[in-house]
Design a protein that fits this description.
48% helix, 21 helices, binds flavin-adenine dinucleotide, Serine Threonine Protein Phosphatase 5, Tetratricopeptide repeat
Length: 471
């Protein structure tokens, strides 16, 4: 009998834990369940769905080179997964199923249902921890709780890390033809939205490996000093690849070890600081698994549920469209719309502007980001939004509200980033781009600020002060 490998957001053949386990058992048949209506319901938009689609096509080609057929089924909801997988298993005569875990709540429930359904008919179905060095629950505080603060989590992560956890999993060897043909990956159904230019985000593990190599060669050593400057391509831009598993964190960390004399925690400051971001990624996956309320549209800090968020359609639309009159915020939002990606510093600025200056419920911003991000990923996105809104783990204390104009001067000193994404301000002198005065705005056809920083800041402080105390 063959073994069934169920691919989800782990679209690669290198260093894939479940695939390696499946291949150890004999010939492999791969299957991908495309659950477009379910992913839409989760809030993903065309940029991610298109990247996902292209990633599956690339995976199919790579698998074909190994003689592994890839089957492709469309389903509407996760609830259909057990029945469809059982049917596929019957059709191909599979004796077992392997997959890599995903940690948000709906995904976990889907996987439990699949394992139960397979068990009922006597077929083993095995989940593997693959996208993290430590499975959720493996790193706990002294009291046995999930960490709710990053720094001690990161310390424990470094302390308990072993070479075995980082060892790359075997790529399957080519297998002889097993009489099952790959299925054509049907194109995405037509929809009203157009994805961003596919050339910005070439899909597949080869493209991912290429980016990783270029990052380590040209950017990593300057990462510590350049990672906050959106005008410079100073970060890896690997987030879409990590989100869909076209690249694994182990591959990243192994590359770091090779580059940094075998260390993740000491040595080159840029590289060490980049490793820290990968740990943040893992932290938020643990948070989603350990505090499932965050997967149910709830704040991590329950007392913040009482916050009096404002209804402000005009403000929300201005933010979405990059017309707030704060050039750095508008440049950020336009970068998101045009490229499907936003620089991390800008994600913080834009998210704080929505949740504090406009005092609009962070969940609306979270949903808007997810709809546009090519790297849209529940755990990191939710973690980032709750951080900015001061409702989450590690959250920014509510009284530390970024002044967007100060941030702009600090991180886009020459106004180059603003000029790129808000071209109507490009004619202005670099100094004037951060907060152009009335006359300059009028001439450029650029809107006036929709809020006054000081007044908006005070309004946010008052709203937070009115909350009941945290427990
Ligand atoms: P690099 O700086 O090169 O970092 C390497 C990798 O580490 C990233 O690719 C990413 O996988 C991970 N990483 C970096 N920073 C973080 C972080 N703060 N939290 C978790 N993981 C991190 N990241 C997503 O992958 N998907 C999202 O949907 C997402 N939404 C966000 C929303 C908000 C409001 C904020 C503040 C942050 C969000 N992030 C998200 C985290 C971060 O902004 C992006 O991962 C990063 O900008 C991606 O660029 P990069 O690949 O060049 O990152």
């Amino acid at each position: 009998a063959c073994t069934l490998m169920w691919f989800r957001s782990d679209l690669r053949v290198h260093d894939n834990t479940a695939l390696a386990a499946a291949a150890r058992q004999g010939p492999v048949v791969a299957v991908f369940l495309r659950s477009l209506p379910q992913w839409r319901q989760h809030g993903h938009g065309i940029n991610k769905l298109d990247f996902w689609h292209r990633g599956v096509v690339a995976l199919g080609d790579t698998l074909a080179g190994l003689g592994i057929p890839l089957l492709h089924r469309d389903i509407d909801t996760f609830a259909q997964s057990p029945a469809v997988l059982l049917q596929v298993a019957r059709e191909v005569g599979a004796g077992a199923l392997h997959f890599n875990y995903e940690y948000p709540l709906d995904e976990q429930r889907r996987d439990t249902a699949v394992v139960d359904a397979f068990q009922k008919v006597g077929l083993p179905a095995t989940g593997h921890h693959d996208s993290v060095a430590f499975a959720p629950g493996e790193l706990l505080t002294g009291k046995g709780d999930y960490y709710s603060v990053f720094t001690p989590f990161a310390r424990a992560w470094h302390r308990q890390l072993t070479a075995a956890r980082l060892a790359l999993r075997d790529r399957p060897s080519p297998q002889p033809h097993i009489g099952i043909e790959s299925e054509r990956i049907r194109p995405l159904p037509p929809c009203a939205e157009t994805p961003v230019d596919a050339r910005l985000w070439p899909a597949g593990e080869e493209a991912a490996a290429d980016r990783l190599e270029r990052f380590l060669r040209f950017r990593a050593r300057r990462y510590a000093s350049q990672r906050d400057l959106p005008a410079i391509a100073g970060t890896s831009e690997l987030s879409p690849y990590l989100a869909l598993g076209m690249l694994s964190p182990r591959q990243c960390l192994q590359a770091v070890l090779a580059e940094n004399h075998g260390s993740l925690a000491e040595g080159d400051a840029g590289i060490v600081s980049w490793v820290n971001e990968l740990v943040w990624r893992e932290f938020y996956q643990h948070v989603a698994a350990g505090f499932p309320r965050v997967c149910r549209y709830r704040a991590f800090q329950p007392h913040t549920e009482a916050l009096a968020w404002r209804d402000d359609e005009r403000g929300f639309n201005a933010w979405c469209e990059g017309r707030t009159g704060f050039p750095i915020v508008d440049a950020a939002m336009r970068q998101l719309i045009h490229t499907g990606w936003m620089h991390n510093r800008l994600r913080m600025i834009a998210a704080m502007f929505l949740s504090k200056h406009l005092l609009i419920d962070w969940r609306r911003g979270e949903a808007f980001f997810l709809r546009h991000l090519v790297d849209g990923e529940f755990c990191a996105n939710n973690g980032g939004w709750q951080w900015a809104a001061s409702t989450g783990t590690d959250a920014a204390p509510y009284f530390r509200i970024f002044n967007p104009t100060t941030q702009s001067h600090r991180f886009d000193a020459d106004g180059h980033f603003i000029a790129e994404y808000v071209p109507e301000l490009a004619e202005l002198s670099p100094r004037d781009r951060h907060a152009p005065g009335e006359a300059l705005r009028a001439k450029a056809g650029y809107p006036s600020p929709i809020v006054d920083h000081k007044a908006a800041r005070q309004r946010a402080l008052d709203a937070f002060k009115a909350l009941p105390a945290a427990h």
